[in-house]
Amino acid sequence: MNIIEKAVEKLLGEKAAAAGGTSEPPITAESAAAAHNPEAAAAGVEAAVQIDEQAAQPIQAPQQPPMAANPPPPIAEDSVPERDDDEGLTNDHVISISSLAREGVLTPDAERSRTAEEYRMIKRPLLTRAFSGAGATVAHRNLIMCTSSVEGEGKTFTSLNLAISIAMELDRTVLLVDADLAKPGLSRVLNINNRPGLTDRLINEDVDLKDLLLRTDVPKLTVLPAGRRHRRSTELLASNNMRALLDELALRYPDRVVLFDSPPLLATSEAGVLAQQMGQICLVVESTVTPQFLVKDALRQLASTDNVSLVLNKCKPDLFLGGYGYGYNYRYGYGYGYGYGYGQGSDN
Asked: For the chain, what is the domain count?
């Protein structure tokens, strides 16, 4: 027996003893082959010894990179402002528009009616001028003011129904603002006349707008109340704070229409100041009641009539019986209107 054979025999004996047995190790194919090929057995012994030494070494966990003394700030999310007309509002109060259905106010779930169809005809040219064609390039065409010549022609009723009709659009949202600071009829109808609103923001520009906006039960329709009474409301509407607020409302969201319920043009000075800052104006005219000279006087209060549309309100049902109506219910006698453009130089 040479030295290699003795080494193999000694190694096998040590392994058997470490296993706790005294019997001879079993003869395997490897041991039989080692008897005929001592050199291969020696190579196997060296490999086994190397493997045992590697197994005996403790496994070390991978080292983590050292932490920076001042970790970098997290990456900011996309800087898209929260929707004032959908999310982020702090007021829990929800205005119930559906409760006004008996008064002739539109609701999104109501049956198709003549009133709904007429407001669809009124809103379409307004939206076209606000968001498409040449009108889209004019600043603040999405700021629309509803006014009248004198009190009682139905401007508040028109502005509310027009806002609801625009909110029914699939890709538009509406902010309805009570800008009649002297006599806030919209806030009274919606029972929010004790809420802070537009005046409070104009007095203090640090007031957050989302603290003033109120949700409604009409999806995509939000209301800004008039706020507290102020003896210098005209100056507030003409202030730099008002211009900055209008810029924010007009440019904050590209899909939003801002509708203002304004005082009558011939009754207060606030309406003229507000009209100068609007992109479009809807002049409500009471059918068969408001004389033509009052309408003309009201139009003279405006710097231009290129952006003015007239809305004929409180029409009698038989006015459209000659081919109009298309089978809609005529049970309502208040608030019917038909919109048409009023161009400069027209005598209509």
From this structure: 1
